[in-house]
Amino acid sequence: MGLKDNKADTGRKRKYLVSRRIDRIFLELYKVYAFHVRFFKEVFVPPYEFKEVIRQCYEVGVRSLPLISLTGFIIGIVFTNQSRPSLAEFGATSWLPSLVSIAIVRALAPLVTAIIAAGRVGSNIGAELGSMRVTEQIDAMEVSATNPFNFLVVTRVLATTFMVPVLAMYTIFVALMGAYLNVSQNELTSFTTYITQVFDAITFLDIFSSIIKTFIFGFTIGMVGSYKGYNSSKGTEGVGKAANSSVVTAMFLVFIEELLALQVINLFRAM
Amino acid sequence: MNTAENKRSIMVGVFVLVAIVIFVIGILTLGGQQKRFIESITVNTVFGDVEGLKVGNNVWFSGVKIGTVKQISLHGESQVQVVMSIEESARKFIRENSKARISSESLIGNKIIEIFGGTPAAGPVEDGDVLASEANLNTDDIMKTLQENNKNLATITGNFSEISNRLVRGEGTVGTLLTDSTLAKDFKSMVASLESTSQNAVRASRDLSRFTSKLGTQGSLANELLTDTTVFNKLEQSMAQLEEATQSATKMAQNLEQASGRFNNENNAVGVLLNDQTFANQLQRTMQNLETSSQKFDENMEALQSNILFRGFFRKREKEEQKAAEEAREQQEQQQQEQQPVKEDNQ
User: Fold this and answer.
1) Where is this region: Disordered (chain B) (predicted)?
2) Which residue of chain B has the CA closest to A170?
3) Chains A & B: contacts with CB separation below 8 Å
């Protein structure tokens, strides 16, 4: 805004701090930071939109359950089936439950849940808020003394933050059942033995680190979707961009966070 | 709150509750599996090398998991102190003089601490006790030994390779045997000969067997020799006599040798007879003279018989001789006549 004023005052060409592109990146970063600050301010400030949070939880959690369950079940079967030849080379197929449980609990279930949520929920939030921005519904809410940020953003971010870990729990359970189906068919392992081997391989650190990761993933998906939708440009094209950008950015950030989380968890594991 | 909202809230509540139930069951199962929620005691031990043991690894006693590694820290001079969390229920089985060693769950499995040994005389281990440790055979040591074995194996296989190459090239006795067709034929004929020999040997052994069986026949010479002690004694006596005879023969031979030695000397009659050429010539002449003399004597005797003085003597002797011959003939004829009637009686 200051730069605009500068142009207006002097009548010369617009001046940039570094370059147009880099300045835009910094500006975007600032906007993201401001968006986060606003979220943490609004989340603790009444009025609390419980009904809307529940509605969003329903949309994000319950409505995503069938898709997540199916994906998790398939992931369990496929991963077990693909891991078998490698272990069979060493004659160690009896270790499949251990291997599969570690892979599912530590990485697969949180990542798959986050990716499915980013695809389904992130794009939904981006498109929804983007269309509201385009159709000036958000502006209308501001005019009508309703806090659109609290009602639209906070509720959705809270819903994704709390529902993605819950979905991840389901994914772990369903994927382990899928893996069991495959293991029992091929190795004739009993359910008790399978469960014993699964829980023998995983630790509390694995479970808690996964839960904490999914909280972060859920928060990221909600924030990215909300930010992209809330700040979408005018026009129908902006809605599509917001939805697409929400998914791509959320997925990208989820993978980056997974990488960082792995480093932090390894620190705890070494202790 | 309208019905739709109410229904949605209930759905979310159920959704979250089920997830929480899954989570809690998972935590409880994991806790039960890792025995996190049971009473435990802490036991320490100090190792020189923990070989990659980590916090959370299992502690075994007689092959049963009784706890986990709680803490690992460097201790003293390049030693490692390991704090183990052990189930209270297993405490009474672990003695104060039990030992701990680093082991492995399987060939490529996680490292574990294995508690072993201990005598009933020693009391059960108490919270905070320090168990003695035992150094285990390191994987590196095993690998070093294996490496040595590998080198030996490589040398052996190299030698075998060289041998097989030489065999293929037909070098050496075995190689020649394998590649030379003439040798193979010879070998074949040798085998045939061997077969024939073995058949002969079988036959011979059969004969020998038959012969030896005959040796055992009662009354045979061999049996007598082997079983009758009297024969043996006689045989022994004969042998003694034979030995005596041999000694006498030896002695006689010595005497003969001495005598023959003396024959070469000319200081005795036989020696002179054998060795002196002059004497021999004289003797020859004497013999010739004797022969001539005897001829002449014979002539003289014939002349004497014709002599009238001696003729009566010779005729008388001739008559006596004829008479004696006639008497002998008559006696013979008489004996024949006596024997003839006896033969006729027998017939």
Assistant:
1) 319-347
2) B19
3) 61
From chain B, the residues in CB contact with A268 under 8 A are: none
Domain extent listing, chain B:
33-141, 276-308
Q: Do A169 and B56 touch (CB under 8 A)?
A: no
Number of CB atoms found within 10 A of residue A199's CB = 22
ipTM above 0.90, yes or no: no
Nearest Cβ partner of B12 from A57, A167, A202? A57
Token pair recorded at residue B286: 């004497």
- The Cα of B128 is separated from the nearest Cα of chain A by a number of Å equal to 22
d(CA B169, CA B166): 5
Domain range summary for chain A, segments of one domain joined by + = 25-270
Residue whose C-alpha is closest to residue A254's, from A214, A227, A225: A214
Q: Which of B2, B12, B57, B73 to mutate: most A Cβ within 10 Å?
A: B12
Q: Measure the CA–CA gap between B61 and A240, rounded to whole angstroms.
A: 64
With beta carbons under 8 A apart, name residues in chain B contacting A195: 29
How far is it, in rounded angstroms, from Cα A151 to Cα B102?
Answer: 60
Q: Give pLDDT tens digits along chain B (347 positions).
A: 567 777 877 888 888 888 888 888 888 887 777 666 677 888 999 988 888 887 778 888 888 888 888 888 888 788 898 998 888 888 888 888 888 988 887 766 778 888 988 888 888 888 888 888 887 766 677 888 899 999 999 999 999 998 888 888 878 777 777 777 777 778 788 889 899 999 999 999 888 888 878 777 777 777 777 777 777 788 788 889 999 998 999 999 898 888 888 777 777 777 777 777 888 888 888 889 999 888 988 888 888 877 777 778 888 888 899 999 999 999 998 888 887 766 666 65
- Please check whether residue B148 is in contact with residue B88, taking contact to mean a CB–CB distance below 8 angstroms: no
